[in-house]
Every structure is written in structure tokens, then in C-alpha cells.
Amino acid sequence: MKTEVRKRLFGLVLLLSLVVLAAGAGMADEPSRVVIVPFKINADRDLSFLKEGIVDMLTSRLSSGDRVVVGREDTDRVLKDISVPVNEEIALAIGARLRADHVLFGSLTILGNSISLDARMVDVHQKRPMLTFFKQSKEIDEVIPQIDLLATRINETVFGRSVAARQPPAQAAERRAVYAHPESLLAAESSDKAKVLSAPVDMAPAGFWKSKNFKIAIKGIALGDVDGDGKTEVVFISNRHIYVHRFESQRLVKIWEKAGKRSERFTGVDVADINGNGRAEIFVTSLKGAGQRLDSFVLEWDGDGFRRIGGDPWYYRVIESPEGGKILLGQKRRMDDPFVPGVYQLTWRNGEYGSQERLTLPKGINIFGFALGDFMNNGQQMIVAFDKGDHIRLFAPSGEEEYKTDERYGGSMNYVESWSKGEDVPDRIYLSQRICVHDLDGDGRLDVVVASNQGSLGRLFRRFRRFESGRMASLSWTDLGLTQMWQTRKISGRISDYAIGDFDNDGTNEVVAAQVAKQGTAITSAKSAIIGYELGLPDCISKK
């Protein structure tokens, strides 16, 4: 009896809502309103983040001058009152409550690499029959093209707007691990060196150390003697915490810890003795408030703890100078421009960090994800940098590109936001991973050291990313181009940042990486660890 009453009440509410909506439907010049119900995700693993990605993609593809997508807050508020799966009847009620014209809902099923997309779009005024869309694929990479196809079908069938479906990027052909220029391949066949380097080898497992797990998602890591005692400390950050540890007795011992303000969000950390007093400063890049205003700061040891000695609205980054030693770089931000053109070297003058010299960088490169050095060993200082697709590019001093890897490296979850005019949600600009340069094997040539995060869904979405595994890799310039020399064994999760230095104070440098095994949510803890790799290369690499 109670069930029957609820059905009748539901029908009455729906009828009244439709009447009210119909009364206002004739109002001219009002844009059509579309509700996108987050798709149900059916998967054999946690892919809940795809809900946001699909809504974001469909919102951008279905919005136009005469059509708006109802905001997520309004949609979520209505969905909280619904405890049953969304069907056509429920979708009509949702549309009526939100005074919408159309409601889109559906599901995405992923089992292994196979996917199936099932979507429905109802006309709240019931002037058109419900649009149905169903597609299957044996490749998980088809998620994006299928969402594009769905949006195209809706635009053409429902709204009468012809839109060409976005074409998926061409798949890179299978290629040799040396990643050579095409014209170099023939010569490589007869090269003894090419045969040795034809496949990157794993680092020897003996040079490996892993810390205990931390219940945080480590965002950045740096190494340096921050208290002036001659020993290296490990500095790392989470979203708004700073940690200083030291390696002692085969474990990390906490030296200091500090929480930032609730309005702060830390983006990066670097360590270097820029003011020359024998104690390395800690440079924390921080964004503040909803507008993401730069509120970075500098910490220095005073004998009892770390105090602020400076701070300016800069993005900070420390890199190796081609002349030797470390240099501090800075770049500005505006509300309408997340990266104001101009990366400057900062120096300590008159009790503060001031800009001294603007670096000459190719267009599109910001302060994150580049390094300087004589990579060809010919006396020319060149620039190595990530592009937006996480390919590594090598630039001559003139700015002309000399080489680009087909392989993707890097892969970061760290981002800044920027509001575009007329957009309801901010753009996410993912920051490039750090690039370190170091002569790892003592052969007189600089090696390019990078993290490499991988995942079938890693970079598919504009606003959301996910990586399933990570490793460290080293590349060096040979007659074949920028060649991968070695890589570490794959670890689960991702590498969020890394540094090179003598972190265990044994007199030799290590690669020290921050592994994020679990990102964490509002109800689950994150999980991270710090991994140290000895820099000794395995015996199977030729030193010819």
C-alpha cells in the first residue's frame, strides 16, 4: 500500500513539474538546458574518477551559445534525493526539478580492456523519442573516441548541429628502444654500441631501498643540508604539510614537521643554499585561496626550527647550473595567466630574493620541466624540456628543436587552475615533471634523468589523470639521438617527484623518488613511500 502511494505521489509531482516547465517553455531567447547525470561505472577495479572525466568531456562538447549544461552542484543536490538507478521516468523527474529540457544518463562498463558504453538522452518535454546509444570496444583507449561519438550523435540528432567527431590520435608505431632518428636506423644495424643499447636494461636490484609507508600523498621531494651539519636531509611535502627527515640506521628519522594554513595548497619544494650561509634554504611553491594566488615562501634553519626568511609571488624551481652548482629560478602568475612569460634567475641581494637575469627559453616552456646543459658534449649549452604531451625535446641555443622522443616520460598529477572567460569550471594545467641532469656514470657526458609514469587511462582526460605504474629512466645523447640507457624496475602507483643527492650520507649520490601508491579520498588514506636507487649501472651495459 505504501509503495502504491509513493508511486502516485511521484507521478503527481512529475506531472505538476512538467506543467510548470511547459508553462515557461515558450519563453523565447532562453538557452536550452541540459542535465548530465554522472555515468554509472561498472569495472573490475576502481575507476570512479572516470565519472568526473566523462561529465567534464560531455559538458565541454554539448555546451554552446544557445545551450547550457546545468551546474554540478545543482545536479548533485537533486541526485542526493534519489536512491534508485536512473531510468527514463527518473530522468524526466530530474529534468523537471532542474527546469531542464534534456537529461543525459548512462553507464560505462570496463572488464579487462573491453569497454561498453550505454547512454540515454530524454526530452523532458517529450517532443522527441528518447535517444539511445550503445557501443562496444575491445580496447580501453576507445573511451575517449566513444564519448566524442556520443556527443556528436547528440549534437546532430537532438540539436541539429553538425559537429565533426574528434579523431583519436594516431597510435605510434612499434619502434626500437633506442628511439633513433629514422635516418640513423640503417647505420645502427652495424653499430656494436647500438646492439648493446638496443633495449634499456633494468638497474641492479642491489641498489634499492624503500622507506616505511606514509599516510599522505607526497607531492614534492628535495635533498640538501638544511641545518648546516654536513649531512643531507630529505624534505618532502603533501598538499599542505612540510616534512624534514634524515636517513639514519637504514630508516628515515623525522627532524621537523609543519602544517600550512587551510587556504594553502603546496605545489612544489626545492632545496639549495642560495644565500651562501652554509645552510640550504627550503623553497615552497604555494597557491592560496580559490583564485590560486601565488603565496610561496622560503624557510631556513635558525638552530631550533625553520623560520620564514622570505616569500614572494613566484613559482620556485632549483636546477643545476651549466657552470656548476645550483641556481634558483622564478616565474610570475596573474589571475588571467597562470604562467606570465619570463623565467628569471633569482639571487639573494639586500636580504631578499630578487630577479637578476631572464632566461632565453623556447616558446611554450614554463619554469617546470626543463634543464640546461651541454648534452651533445660539443660545447653548446642546450635546453631539454617536456612538451605538453610529455615527450622530451632537445633545443639548440637558437631555440630550434634538435630532437624529440616518441616515448612519453614524466606524467604528473600536480596541477594549477586557470579560469577561462565564460567557463563554469576552471581549466587544469598539469605541471611537467622535474628533469635532472647529471653525469651518472662518470664518462664526461650529461645524462638526462626523468620519471616515467604509465597507465592506459593516464592522460586521456583534460581534467583528470590516473597512472598505474612508474619507474625512473636515464637518457644520454649518442649517434642515435637521445637514447634511453637504463630504467628502474616498474613500481605500482606513480612517481610524484624525485631528486639526486647523497641522501644516505655514504659519500655517493642516489636517485631518490617519491612513490604514491594510493592517492587517497575523503574517506580513505593515501599511501606513499620514498625509494632510494644507487646510481651504479648493471654489468650488462657496455662502457665502450
What this model shows, in words?
The chain is mainly β and 544 residues long. Helices cover 15% and strands 39% of the residues. The protein is built from 7 helices and 35 strands. Strand 14 and strand 15 form a beta hairpin. Helix 1 packs across helix 4. 36% of the residues are buried.
Which SSEs are present, and which pair or pack?
Elements: H1 2-25, E1 32-36, E2 40-43, H2 49-62, E3 67-69, H3 72-79, H4 88-97, E4 102-111, E5 114-123, E6 131-137, H5 143-157, H6 185-189, H7 192-196, E7 201-202, E8 208-210, E9 220-224, E10 233-237, E11 241-248, E12 251-259, E13 264-272, E14 281-288, E15 293-294, E16 297-301, E17 306-310, E18 315-320, E19 326-331, E20 343-349, E21 352-358, E22 370-373, E23 382-386, E24 391-395, E25 401-408, E26 415-418, E27 427-430, E28 436-438, E29 447-454, E30 469-478, E31 481-487, E32 491-492, E33 494-501, E34 510-518, E35 527-534
Parallel strand pairs: 1-3, 1-4, 2-4, 7-31
Antiparallel strand pairs: 4-5, 5-6, 8-35, 9-10, 10-11, 11-12, 13-14, 14-15, 14-16, 16-17, 18-19, 19-20, 20-21, 22-23, 23-24, 24-25, 26-27, 28-29, 29-30, 30-31, 30-32, 33-34, 34-35
Helix pairs in contact: 1-4, 2-5
Taking the alpha carbons of the first and last residues, their distance comes to 86 Å
Task: Report low-confidence residues grouped into runs of 5 or more.
Answer: 5-28, 167-199, 537-544
Structural class: mainly beta
Q: Total number of β-strand segments?
A: 35
* Fraction in beta strands: 35-45%
Radius of gyration: 27 Å
Annotation field: number of helices: 7
Helix content: 10-25%
The overall average pLDDT, rounded, is 83
**Biggest β-sheet description:** 6 strands, mixed
> In one word, what is the shape?
elongated
